[in-house]
Write a structure and sequence with these properties.
heterodimer, A: 78 residues, mainly alpha, 83% helix, 0% strand, flat, B: 228 residues
Amino acid sequence: MIFVSILIIFMLAGAISASVFKNLINSVIALALVSLIAAILFYILQAPDVAMAEAAIGTGLTTAIFLITIRRTERTEE
Amino acid sequence: MRRIVSLILLAVVAVGVALSLSRIPFGTPKTRVGEYYIREGRKETGAVNIVTAVVVNYRGFDTLGEVTVLFTAAVGVGAVLQLFGGKSKYIKRRPASLILRTGCRFLFPLILLVGAYIFIHGHLTPGGGFQGGAVVASAYLLFYLGCRERRISEEATQAVESLSGLVFLVVGVLGLFAGGYFLLNFLPKGDPGSLLSAGVIPVIYIAIGFKVGSELAGIIDKLMEETE
């Protein structure tokens, strides 16, 4: 229970910092942290199918696609 | 002023959502159909993984819609990049560092193998076409980072994608001819727990795995293209 609470606190911190950061690279990394913790929580809640999808798509591919897009556009938000 | 108003609105929405969520008795059985799937799913579909039985067999038509959504997204990315990205051309970039290159050569086949394992065993173990396809696509991402001088052919990804979509539809239509409704599980169920069981479920999930993998790899390929 304590473990889950710590994970949720980290997840909230990641979500808030993803929306606050001005540097979009940092923002995307914070978003990847949110997805990673979501995957762990899905696994703890006995939903391994969803956890696998979240880990592969949310943490891996989405982060990569965002990073490639940021490299081709602008790095900071005004 | 606008900030205060938006904060108040946000608070109202949050209270509303919290109130309506607190009325739902989480964890108690609400629907009979869920219990039915758990009780009869294994016998009716032959799949040990009940999630797969629901996704491919009971709710196969929804999965077809999901695959279509992904296809539309891939087409959209391609169209946007083609229309507004200018003339694209793949310039030769300097090769990656030794560590990345070696790691790519070692890990690329292994990640492909894991992805294929996940979607071939979709009816036996957790995972399936979408998860396996995403893992396959992440192998291609590593390939683009590590072995930059090479490139997968666009025609090949498109051909694989179209063929696997066609397999999904043809299996569905065959069910229509064999038993009267779309996506009927018309093949023999086999004995649950072995690789060749569950009728059409492995066929459809392998097709979905190829489709999702080639689609996401195609998106990565289009994004990695350098524009002039």
